């Protein structure tokens, strides 16, 4: 059975707009930059992305731009996305089957950690342990990703992972649904915040033993329904306070 045979573009638009609004509320975005995308075709190559240079607090479901990762004329359209959005997200949706949803952003704590010579997230609590041996690390930043080559390089650095720390840049999370990718992003920024706060004390980190870290990370993988519930609850907050995200 093709799990993508009954794709509901309208619902994906609503979910992606919700993820954008929620990320804005958390101050993860950067100006009118950064970009989220979600596939709306079975092969993953047709995808929605936030409109060029519209503030995240104003993005609505109907604003999202439909793109084809195989269309070389995309940037000549009057509604062309941000150049770096096209470079990164077209490459992710062309090359990575796990990239049904791709959330690329520069949240403050994860970006601070990505600015260190060693941006490793170490298992020092249960949230940091979620990412134990489950992160890609892109250590070859090539400048603002306005060229197709940089997008292809980023896709190659992610490989078969679903979460990547991007040195000198930011983070990207991938998922089968918007809720799954957004929950991973939420916890990645929480993990980075914990690392930054722990480093700020100047004391040695109490890093878990490998077997405990792996056990904890594996437990997160059985806790999958929490991610969906988390996103659903946050959409209910938006329904009450910012209902026009669905428009």
Outline the structure in words.
- The chain is of the alpha+beta class and 247 residues long.
- It has a single domain, classed as Class II aldolase/adducin N-terminal domain (L-fuculose-1-phosphate Aldolase, 3-Layer(aba) Sandwich), CATH 3.40.225.
- Helix content is 43%, strand content 13%.
- The chain has eight helices and seven strands.
- It has helices spanning 9-25, 83-95, 108-114, 126-129, 148-158, 178-200, 210-221, 224-241, and strands spanning 35-39, 46-49, 65-68, 101-105, 136-138, 163-166, 170-175.
- It has a seven-stranded mixed beta sheet, with helices on both faces.
- The model has no long low-confidence stretch (mean pLDDT 94).
What is the element layout, followed by pairings?
Elements: H1 9-25, E1 35-39, E2 46-49, E3 65-68, H2 83-95, E4 101-105, H3 108-114, H4 126-129, E5 136-138, H5 148-158, E6 163-166, E7 170-175, H6 178-200, H7 210-221, H8 224-241
Parallel strand pairs: 5-6
Antiparallel strand pairs: 1-2, 1-4, 2-3, 4-7, 6-7
